[in-house]
Amino acid sequence: MSTENHREAESAPPSLTPPPNAIPPVRHPAAPAPGELLGSHYDHCFGCGQGQPHGLHLAARAGDGVRITAEFTVQSAHQGAPGLAHGGVLATALDETLGSLNWLLRVIAVTGRLETDFVRPVPVGTVLFLQAEVTAVAGRKIYSRAVGRIGGPDGPVAVRAQALFIEVKVDHFTENGRPEEIRAVMSDPDQIRRVRAFEVNP
After folding, report:
1. pLDDT digit string (tens) for 55-74?
2. Which residue from 84, 89, 112 is spatially nearest to 168, judged by alpha carbons?
3. What burial class does residue 34 get, using C-beta atoms within 10 Å of its C-beta: 0-12 exposed, 13-18 middle, 19+ buried?
4. 173 SS3 class
5. Could you tell me which of 66, 93, 197, 201 has the fewest CB atoms within 10 Å of its CB?
6. CA 124 to chain centre
7. Running DSSP on this structure, what letter comes out for residue 154?
8. Cα 34-146-195 angle, rounded to 5 deg
9. Residues 183, 173: contact at Cβ < 8 Å?
């Protein structure tokens, strides 16, 4: 663990600190291969879906272990202050990246807590390079962290986050989502698309 990541782990609040009985994450044998593009889990997802004209269109790739990398370009529609990315959009990019990690574990999980640090402004037109990893698992709880850099994968840190995801059953979505969308997904003949639609969601 780098000095920077060690400092982050030390400063994690109790709810984001893995308990003593937590275990290291285990990559699922059927997880996408390192370097493989994960693709959109749901076409209408604001984070990664291609069906959202003003969405982030975030593209994530599997890494080694239980890690992924992702990128998105800040568009004019993502502004908060003039010429700068909205903080909520950056938090969404972190959440989407962290949520995509669960595909490497092959579990359905939802965001329980997301703590975000905004380190420097991110101008419109910037490509944000994200790296995320699962750090520990304790029962249904999945602990993870992410960092976003500008100027390249090794550029200066702009944002970072720590998160707690909770493993759930598909009922979490089918019982709470709007019926029209749930019916459309459940009637999709493509089994992988049906499963992936419920991969990440708050």
Report:
1. 888 899 999 999 999 999 99
2. 112
3. middle
4. helix
5. 201
6. 21
7. T
8. 55
9. no
